[in-house]
Design goal:
Blueprint: H1 3-14, H2 18-29, H3 32-35, H4 39-61, H5 66-73, E1 79-85, H6 90-93, H7 96-103, E2 109-115, H8 120-123, E3 136-141, E4 146-150, H9 155-166, H10 171-185, H11 188-199
Parallel strand pairs: 1-2
Antiparallel strand pairs: 1-3, 3-4
Helix pairs in contact: 2-4, 4-7, 5-11, 9-10
Length: 200
């Protein structure tokens, strides 16, 4: 058995479905006792609560457009999409629920969600500018060959954050503008990028 197959089997073993990830995050969001051990943990807990509201809104309201549905429908062989994330990650909450809705009609696509901080050996294979940015999404075929890699946010959003940082905006300030962009975009840019990825 080659290393690619072994890696694919490994992520299938340690990964969970998006549904399980979402259920676990909902539990953590309403249970501050476990998470709020210090100021950082309290902030992460607050982010998780906010992200679960974002996720619920997207799952309830979003319907995939014809172009992305057509691109997804052309996938006729099994694929595993590895999603490395954490439930406190705002970029994850603004992207992964859209991807679920875009792909859920095709049984050949399987989401395997893993927690970054539990599996650093995985994220360290897919660093962004030497950092452990999330979410990172990698598609594999059933032989373990990589089909695509995406993350941690759409290209327009990457440029927006880069420009705001260079202009001297604080993390809180650029995050506010970033999420305003997400709210206006409503998954359109993400869908367009995945149409191109799936064509390739």
């Amino acid at each position: 058995m080659n290393n690619k197959i072994k890696f694919l089997q490994h992520i299938k073993k340690i990964g969970i479905s998006f549904d399980q990830f979402n259920k676990d995050a909902n539990i953590r969001a309403i249970d501050p006792i476990e998470l709020a051990k210090d100021e950082l943990q309290q902030k992460l807990h607050d982010f998780t609560k906010l992200n679960q509201r974002r996720t619920a809104r997207i799952l309830k309201s979003y319907k995939a457009g014809n172009e992305i549905k057509e691109a997804v429908s052309k996938i006729s062989k099994n694929q595993t999409w590895l999603i490395t994330t954490e439930d406190w990650c705002g970029d994850s909450a603004q992207n992964i629920p859209y991807l679920l809705r875009m792909t859920e009609s095709n049984p050949h696509i399987e989401f395997n969600v893993i927690y970054r901080d539990t599996h650093l050996d995985i994220i360290d294979k897919y660093l962004t500018n030497d950092g452990r940015a999330i979410p990172i999404i990698i598609g594999f075929d059933d032989k373990g060959d990589e089909l695509f890699q995406w993350g941690p946010r759409p290209e327009i959003a990457k440029q927006l954050v880069k420009d705001l940082k260079e202009a001297g905006y604080s993390k809180e300030e650029f995050n506010e503008k970033l999420h305003l962009w997400y709210g206006k975009d409503r998954g359109k840019t993400l869908g367009n990028e995945f149409v191109e990825l799936l064509k390739e």
